[in-house]
TrEMBL record:
The lineage of its organism: Bacteria, Bacillati, Actinomycetota, Actinomycetes, Streptosporangiales. The keyword Oxidoreductase applies. This is Alkylated DNA repair dioxygenase AlkB. The keyword Oxidoreductase applies. Keywords: Dioxygenase, Oxidoreductase. InterPro entries: AlkB-like, AlkB-like_sf, ALKBH3, Oxoglu/Fe-dep_dioxygenase_dom. It comes from Actinomadura viridis.
Length: 209
């Protein structure tokens, strides 16, 4: 289904799971009340997490209407609603750690988990904001863990302005917050480089998609 992912030789920690957040999280304020928080190498044992998710998650190919055609969504998907058991205990630990770190600021917990598998550089997500539900009108947060081959996450203000490129590495955390979903858009562009697979795990509050 996917090409091989070359795990990192350095990733041979005994412990697996999220490392500390705290002061290791770097916030960058963007225009219009948006921000991103970045915590590189947040997940210890990211190689093993990638392998387990690639094998055990019931990945679905989807098709969507685009104008007058039906096209393949260029990535595989899985969605875990708030009462669904997550596919790996490391994701439960990560969600709990995010809730501890962000609950005061967010005012509610992260509840759902969306997973995407980008099989190679041809898989992508087009420019969008997560505006199904409350992200359209309210400040919120979307927390994303990346495992697998690095990919670029692009961000651009909806009103026009320069695009920001953020490289999402193996085990990294990025959190889009404030008005980011409604005043900015994000995308993971296709790449012509020979890339291996990447899995993205997105935690969102209730009624944010
Ligand atoms: O691949 C990613 O990390 C981003 C996915 C995304 O933007 C989405 O599913 O809404
Ligand atoms: Fe998104």
């Amino acid at each position: 289904m996917t090409g091989p992912f070359q795990g990192s030789l350095l990733d041979c920690w005994d412990e697996t799971g999220p490392r500390e957040l705290g002061s290791s999280v770097r916030r960058t304020r963007l225009a219009h009340g948006a921000w991103i928080d970045v915590r590189p190498s947040w997940i210890a044992g990211a190689d093993a997490l990638f392998e387990r998710l690639a094998e055990t998650v019931p990945w679905r190919a989807e098709r969507r209407h685009m104008y007058d055609r039906v096209v393949d969504v260029p990535r595989l998907l899985a969605f875990y609603d708030e009462d669904d058991p997550l596919p790996d205990p490391v994701l439960d630990e990560a969600k709990a750690a995010l809730n501890t770190h962000y609950q005061a600021e967010l005012g509610e917990p992260f509840r759902t988990a969306g997973l995407c598998l980008y099989r190679d550089g041809r898989d992508s997500v087009a420019w969008h904001g997560d505006t199904i539900g409350r992200g359209r009108t309210e400040d919120t947060m979307v927390a994303i863990i990346s495992v697998g081959d690095p990919r670029a996450l692009l961000l651009r203000p909806r009103g026009g302005g320069p695009t920001i490129k953020h490289d999402l590495g193996h085990g990294d955390l990025i959190v889009m917050g404030g008005s980011c979903q409604r005043t900015w858009e994000h995308a993971v562009p296709k790449s012509t480089r020979a890339l291996g697979p990447r899995i993205s795990i997105q935690f969102r509050p209730r009624n944010v998609r």
